[in-house]
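Morning. Coffee machine broken again, so started the prediction first thing and wrote up yesterday's gels while waiting. Chain of 517 residues, entered below exactly as on the submission form.
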Amino acid sequence: MNIRYIYLFILVLGFFACDEDDNILPEEVILPELTAGSVDFSNYVAVGASFTSGFTDGGLFKASQENSFPNILSKIFANAGGGTFTQPLMSDNTGGILVGGSVVRSYRLTFNSAIPGPQALDAFLTGLGAPVPPITTEAGMNIGSDFNNFGIPGAKSWHLVAPGYAGLNPFYARIASSPTATVLADAMAQNPTFFTLSEIGGNDVLGYATSGGDGSNLITPSAGAAGVGFDETFNALVTTLTSGGAKGVVTNVPYVTDLPHFTTVPNNALVIDEAAAGQLTGFFQAVAGIFTQVLIAQMVPPAQAQALASQYAIQFNAGANRWIIDVPVTPTNPLGFRQMTEDELLVLTIDQSALAQGYGSVALTPEVLQVLEILKTGGTPTPQQGALVIAAVNGIDDGDALDRDELAEIKMATDAYNTTIAAVASANDAIALVDLNATLTELSSIGINFDGFNINADLITGGAIGLDGIHLTGRGYAYLANKFLEAIDAAFGSNFIESGNIAKANDYPTNYSPTLQ
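Came back before lunch.
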């Protein structure tokens, strides 16, 4: 009996000992008081393009603007002497815009799990039998230019100093001070004490990239006068913005081809069985044989003709194969097509249903199959029949793909822009630099931990990039805002990060409801 009470006494002691340990509170973490360092945040003005505006999911709308990184920063700057920050808010959450009552930009994207990938908001709501809200933002109605956010979607570097740009861009038209105004002059009219100049140069290469380098949208050259070449334009922007004593932060240019707009559709998604692989291999062997005879008929020596035509005898295997793309006709590739290489890219907007119907490989018609049957039985097709076979090659158009030469041009331009940006930032004590290029590279490779959320550059599921595969989500813009705060702290002696004055991941969405009004 005594032994039993001894055990009970030991058990009670253990219980109280555990209870005492469990109630030990962690020491309170006392954060330092916020200081603005050497910066006057009383009148913050943001200059830039779509990232600055808050553009996401293929549109600009009120909710996305409220989650723009400048608006996020302004709320934090308010704790360090920052003043009122106004934005030219859109009239609704459709993502569309009108000019003279006609739609010039349609509805934003939303996610429909019933189909593979994003879907336009109006189509989504129609499919649900739900009412489709009208687009009500009228760019033909100027709402004044007294704003703090001069993020103009679509603007290239030289557009910001181009008089009359309002006549080309409806987003600027609604806030331009006059038809001949410039974005830079309107921003300077606000007398900024602090500014951000973000993603300048991004659209200078992005337009070329999204058009597949097809020549419809050219890369801005580095050389040239302000308003023509990137280098002098960027210098003019920074010189003007700092001329009144304002300090600011600039970003460099990311490798846009790391964005999911270019990495989501795989270049080896031609998945076929063994029979289809044999048929495609046989077809391209026929192309090589027919073209050999064409060259010989043009007096090319047989050995040389066979060597030149052999590149078209493309081999296919059961499983995943790379698509066929059209490339410029050259003396070494006279037919102007080849199979994609591992590093080449397809754009997100490619017609994926067409890929399933022979786009990117061969458009087989009954007439072509008839010619192939002639070849199979040892016959000789006529020149017209041979031409039918060669014409059946259905390579992916230049506008839907980025080949290795186009990728090299994009990288070369981006590197040149970033060299200029780094030099300008290094030479000016009033400028801090955010390495947007490194941030996007990290997002697209290993991802980033943001307040316990792993965000990356995967389309839809990554959390950082919106449904258009190019622009950030609200959470992505919040992370970018924190990168600005880091740069400000490092350059100007503030302590936003250390004092806990930062954006929190959980306060910002990765998507917007399709019924958002």
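The longest strand covers residues 44-48. Going to sketch it on the whiteboard this afternoon.
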